[in-house]
Design brief:
20 helices, single chain, 668 residues, five-stranded mixed β-sheet
């Protein structure tokens, strides 16, 4: 099978290229109808289908989908060429070429293995060439669908040969078929049935996409199913138009475009998702396929131009020599372009480092740096999976890991390894070359600097959060001790002094009475200082009424504010309570100051984090608004705990402050 694929691939490519080139030459020479011109464009595009089939067969010679794409890519340009040359005679009255009827019959027979083959077996067997149950179709019904496709192909072949009139022309009436028989017209039923049957094969492909084992396979098959939908839609549209008495000839362009879309989706699936594990093969196929197209194009252009300039006095070998000479400088250029398309920036380290630098510059926050790094490395080198781990913690991940070999690289910093960069090639069986390893090791050296900076930033933020949380918890304890311990003690001392002073006889020992009065005043001042210190440590209203009650109490003082709490809040850390209260008070105060009389809505909820929202129905933010001290203070309070606070416009008017604060304790 492998030997057959090797022999068949260049033949199919040559047939497709020469047929497309001949159709283009006839179109340029004219006359030609608009429909034939559109079909000629699709014939050129269909060469890509052959290239994709070649790529699949190079890796999996037994994959029937590769054979279907290879054959369809060859016969569709041939079919278009046959229609253009037939219309030139039967429609525009140009002299007929010898054996035109035989050409029409052969091309009509071959066309069955173009769009119909793709619509039936191409969609049914995609992508591995095997018949399998998928979606809502059990195995038994899938086998029934396959047998239906076989019957359809047999009926279409019989109709292409035995139809009473020639098919591969738009002439009206169509010329008679010398081997046609009257019952052959019954084969039209099979043409009409392509739409419903192809819709079933498309549904089968869509079911396989939904049942795919890995996310990459699911995305690739979904993309192919989306592209393949063009085929049944075109045939069903043709059926509906024909039943309504309309002209169905123009819909053939959509049918051709649908098959090209399937090939394009397969090609994208190979490059982006490793659909057929064929990237190395695809690189060579695209390179030599492109060179072949260039050679044929230059040969046709040169032979036509030289023939007109020298009236046929220049042999065709001169045109062939010009085409061969043009290929020499183009090969390296095409090789670089194809390699970048398939393998990314592996051959251009400078561009890879440049792209990494740009992505790092555009990362707005520390938490965005490493995700940008793994995404850049994965996209630039066309990898399947990239992850960065610092210590034992995974910091960022891109792509989806599958079974297969992977490459782990140390992240060196200051003479030691601070983590690991792990990558997996797009094709599970693909090994990294020495150049690939060298580029990845160089990238790892640059990534380690970013990873170290992010790790230090996160450690600093975690330390800051622990400090704030510990500080607020300590303040809550101190306030409770001052309020419940030292404060009552001092008050008791003051009362004791009053008792002693009342027990002294009047007018006796005035110095003692004065001393007791002074002590009483000192005790009162001490109690006042204790209350002031306790209030500054933590708003007393939080301990007296809780967070919700404290916010409602402030809203009542402002007037016009409503506080909504869908569900009771769990016990909150002291730091979270203080930050949420301060942010809410500042936001409500700003709203009442800048939007007097406007409705203010406050909501508190917990969804893994404490979510605070303060919205007003005022005039909104003025043009050129810049954050003041109050907004900066709210943002700082949130960021100290690892949260965030943002101010946004509110639709249709007004402003809204959103704060999100983490509830979990910061690890020590």
């Amino acid at each position: 099978m492998e030997r057959l694929a090797q022999l068949s691939s260049p033949v199919a490519l040559a047939v497709g290229l020469l047929s497309a080139a001949a159709a283009v030459a006839l179109a340029v020479r004219g006359p030609i109808s608009g429909l034939d011109l559109a079909l000629t464009v699709t014939a050129v595009a269909f060469v890509s289908t052959t290239l994709v089939g070649m790529a699949v067969l190079r890796t999996s010679p037994g994959n029937l989908v590769g054979w279907i794409l290879l054959v369809a890519g060859a016969v569709m340009p041939l079919s278009v060429f046959g229609q253009v040359i037939s219309d030139a005679t039967y429609v525009f009255g140009r002299p007929a070429i010898p054996g035109l009827v035989a050409v029409n019959l052969i091309v009509g027979f071959a066309s069955v293995f173009g769009i119909p083959l793709v619509a039936l077996f191409g969609l049914l067997l995609f992508p591995d060439g095997r018949l399998a149950a998928a979606g809502t179709l059990p195995r038994r019904r899938t086998s029934w669908l396959a047998r239906t496709c076989w019957v359809m192909m047999a009926g279409l072949i019989a109709y292409s040969l035995l139809s009473p009139s020639l098919l591969n022309t738009t002439a009206d009436p169509a010329p008679a078929n010398p081997i046609g028989v009257p019952p052959g017209a019954i084969g039209l039923v099979f043409v009409l049935a392509i739409g419903p049957v192809s819709a079933m094969t498309w549904a089968h492909l869509f079911g396989r996409a939904r049942a795919a084992g890995t996310p990459d396979q699911r995305r690739a098959l979904t993309l192919a199913a989306a592209a393949g939908a063009c085929v049944p839609v075109a045939f069903l549209t043709c059926l509906a138009t024909g039943l309504a008495g309309g002209d169905t000839a123009q819909i053939g362009v959509i049918e051709n475009a649908g098959a090209v879309a399937i090939a394009a989706a397969s090609w994208f699936g190979i490059i982006r998702y490793g659909l057929f594990d064929s990237r190395a093969v695809l690189s060579r196929t695209l390179l030599y396929g492109s060179l072949t197209v260039v050679v044929v194009g230059i040969y046709l252009a040169a032979s036509t131009l030289l023939g007109r300039l020298f009236a046929g006095g220049v042999p065709a070998v001169v045109a062939a020599g010009l085409a061969a000479l043009a290929v020499l400088p183009l090969r390296d250029l095409l090789q670089r372009r194809v390699n970048r398309l398939v393998f990314g920036l592996r051959d251009d380290p400078l561009a890879a480092f440049g792209l990494l630098g740009v992505r790092l510059d555009t990362a707005a926050a520390p938490e965005e740096v490493l995700p940008a790094v793994v995404r850049t490395v994965g996209e630039a080198l066309r990898l399947r999976y990239v992850t960065i781990a610092v210590g034992r913690e995974e910091m960022a991940r891109w792509g989806q890991e599958v079974a297969g070999a992977r490459l782990e690289l140390d992240l060196p910093f200051a003479g030691e390894s601070i983590g690991r960069l792990t990558v997996q090639a797009r094709d599970p069986g693909e090994a990294f070359s020495a150049d690939d390893r060298s580029l990845l090791e160089s990238l790892a050296s640059q990534v380690s600097v970013a990873a170290r900076a992010v790790a230090l930033t996160q450690a600093l933020q975690a330390s800051r959060e622990r400090l704030v949380a510990t500080l607020e918890e300590e303040r809550r304890r101190l306030r409770r001790d001052l309020h419940d311990g030292l404060g009552p003690t001092l008050a008791g001392i003051a009362l004791g002094i009053d008792t002693v002073r009342r027990a002294l006889p009047d007018a006796s020992q005035p110095e003692t009475a004065d001393l007791l009065t002074a002590l009483r005043e000192e005790a009162e001042r001490a109690v006042t200082d204790i209350r002031r210190i306790a209030y500054n440590l933590r708003p007393p209203v939080l301990d007296e009424m809780g967070l919700v009650g404290a916010i409602r109490e402030h809203a009542t003082r402002l007037g016009g504010a409503t506080v909504t709490v869908p569900a009771p809040l769990p016990p909150l850390p002291a730091a979270v309570e203080v930050a949420a209260y301060r942010i809410a008070v500042e936001a409500m105060t700003n709203a009442s100051r800048h939007a007097p009389g406007a409705t203010i809505e406050v909501s508190l909820s917990v969804n893994g984090r404490l979510e605070l929202l303060v919205a007003d129905a005022g005039a909104g933010l003025p043009p050129g608004f810049q954050a003041g001290v109050g907004l900066r203070s709210m943002r700082e309070r949130a960021s100290e705990l690892g949260g965030e606070c943002v101010l946004d416009p509110r639709e249709p008017h007004g402003t809204v402050v959103r704060a999100s604060l983490p509830l979990e304790a910061v690890p020590s």
